[in-house]
């Protein structure tokens, strides 16, 4: 019979884990011989770490610099992709004309699509899971009336709605949250309820415009899954990092994955679908409340996510700011897709499918060449009011907090004309219609004295 200690297990090459105590007890209780013990212990031996690909997997470059200010951005995007594409799960990738870096080399850029085999990477959809766009056709309604009404209904800024003004989350969805390992969390569900009907901040917007084809007024909203999605992302990253330490410690922490074939993988996939349902319900609750207040029947509605994970068999397409075109990704979506550019440019209504360059995706916007801070610095010689007047002439642009956020004005984004030219040059999708801008509401400069900040101070 063999007696063995934890220290000896470590000397045999095992990493201290919960199973140590159970194994020591099993060996002693069953009085295993040395060979029996070694046979028994084999089941606990960790697999060899999965190495990074020695060379980056191929990725398609659908972007080029149109001027000096874009050169640095394009170089950074390509360099970060070269590091990212060494992640062991990845089999292919693409970058879109609106691509821009999100962090150090190796992090997925905005405008990046990467395909992983049997793996979900929470870092590739990031905290704003299912950031998406929805449009509703209001027929011949007056655009100012639609914008005024939407302004009286929507909610921008930190946090959720006050108890008195909450929009209901459906019982069906709440029940579905409770059935999922990641979402069955009363704090998360309570936040999901109070965040329903809210749009957050940053570049989330509520846009009203006129269809070039029909002359109809269209409402377009842009936001993601708000705090419930961010909470799922945090949980997903923790689980993925545990797998990373066991399976592939060489992989960057941001690029950790949850193997789909595990219980965690299946539950995380389901959780993503429920968060997608929540986000769709969030857009719908705002659009439906505007229709109801104006006693208008909708003529049409389109929506698509552009920050999500899509599945085709054992391949998981991670789109970090890219518009899914191919119907195989979106069995429940029948209409065309939406690509916003900036508040002074049309929202493009597009369609398309997989071709040799796009992996089934199109750009999701115009993207940024500069950080918000760099952009603000470049305009420092003008007053905020001057910049606002120059860039929004003829448009009805409003900030929910009443403070202009110049980092969201059209000059903060890449040239929409160049992005559209590259969509055509690389044959990424077809433009069916354009929603010409009438006006737009955004959160406003949240660093200033926004109403939700004043309220918090007052409550103290
Ligand atoms: N029509 C508008 N488009 C806008 C506005 N602000 C930003 N944008 C575009 O949206 C995309 C998507 O951004 P992301 O947060 O999902 O990465 C962005 O690239 C811009 O082109 C706006 O006020 N109106
Ligand atoms: Mn978005």
UniProtKB/TrEMBL annotation:
Active site annotation, chain numbering: 364
Cofactor: Mn(2+)
One Pfam family matching this protein: RtcB
Coiled-coil regions, chain positions: none
Positions that bind Mn(2+) 1: 204
Catalytic activity from the UniProt record: a 3'-end 3'-phospho-ribonucleotide-RNA + a 5'-end dephospho-ribonucleoside-RNA + GTP = a ribonucleotidyl-ribonucleotide-RNA + GMP + diphosphate
GO MF, one example: DNA ligase activity
Keywords: GTP-binding, Ligase, Manganese, Metal-binding, Nucleotide-binding, RNA repair
Gene Ontology biological-process entries: DNA repair; RNA processing; RNA repair
Residues holding Mn(2+) 2: 222, 306
Source domain of life: Bacteria
EC number: 6.5.1.8
Binding site for GMP: 306-307, 340-343, 364-367
Note accompanying the cofactor annotation: Binds 2 manganese ions per subunit.
PANTHER family: RNA-SPLICING LIGASE RTCB
Record-given protein name: 3'-phosphate/5'-hydroxy nucleic acid ligase
Annotated source species: Epilithonimonas lactis
């Amino acid at each position: 019979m063999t007696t063995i200690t934890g220290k000896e297990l470590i000397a045999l090459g095992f990493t201290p884990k919960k199973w140590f105590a159970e194994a020591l007890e099993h060996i002693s209780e069953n009085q295993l011989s040395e060979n029996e013990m070694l046979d028994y212990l084999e089941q606990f031996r960790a697999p060899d770490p999965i190495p990074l690909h020695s060379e980056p997997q191929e990725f398609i470059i659908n972007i080029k610099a149109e001027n000096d200010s874009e050169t640095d951005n394009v170089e950074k995007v390509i360099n970060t992709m070269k590091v990212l594409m060494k992640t062991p799960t990845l089999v292919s990738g693409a970058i879109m004309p609106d691509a821009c870096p999100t962090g150090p080399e190796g992090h997925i850029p905005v405008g990046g699509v990467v395909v992983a085999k049997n793996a979900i990477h929470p870092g590739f959809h990031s905290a704003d899971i299912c950031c998406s766009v929805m449009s509703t056709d209001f027929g011949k309604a007056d655009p100012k009336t639609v914008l005024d009404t939407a302004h009286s209904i929507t909610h921008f800024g930190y946090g959720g709605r006050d108890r008195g003004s909450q929009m209901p989350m459906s019982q069906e969805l709440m029940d579905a949250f409770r059935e999922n390992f990641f979402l069955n969390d009363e704090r998360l569900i309570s936040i999901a309820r109070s965040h329903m009907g809210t749009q957050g901040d940053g570049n989330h917007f509520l846009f009203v415009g006129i269809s070039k084809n029909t002359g109809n007024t269209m409402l377009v909203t842009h936001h993601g899954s708000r705090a419930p999605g961010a909470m799922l992302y945090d949980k997903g990253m923790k689980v993925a990092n545990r797998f990373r330490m066991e399976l592939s410690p060489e992989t960057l922490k941001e690029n950790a994955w949850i193997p789909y074939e595990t219980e965690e993988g299946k539950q995380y996939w389901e959780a993503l679908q429920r968060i997608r349902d929540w986000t769709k319900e969030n857009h719908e609750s705002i659009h439906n409340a505007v229709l109801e207040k104006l006693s208008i029947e909708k003529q049409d509605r389109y929506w698509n996510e552009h920050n999500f994970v899509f599945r085709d068999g054992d391949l998981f397409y991670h789109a970090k700011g890219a518009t899914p075109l191919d119907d195989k990704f979106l069995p429940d979506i029948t209409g065309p897709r939406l690509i916003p550019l900036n508040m002074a440019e049309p929202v493009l209504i597009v369609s398309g499918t997989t071709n040799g360059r796009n992996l089934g995706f199109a750009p999701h916007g115009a993207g940024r060449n500069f950080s918000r801070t760099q952009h603000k610095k470049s305009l420092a010689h003008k007053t905020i009011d001057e910049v606002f007047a120059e860039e929004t002439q003829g448009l009805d642009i409003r900030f929910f907090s009443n403070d202009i956020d110049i980092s969201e004005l059209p000059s903060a984004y890449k040239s929409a004309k160049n992005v559209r030219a590259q969509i055509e040059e690389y044959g990424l999708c077809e433009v069916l219609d354009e929603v010409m801008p009438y006006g737009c509401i955004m959160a406003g400069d949240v660093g200033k004295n926004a109403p939700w900040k004043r309220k918090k101070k007052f409550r103290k």
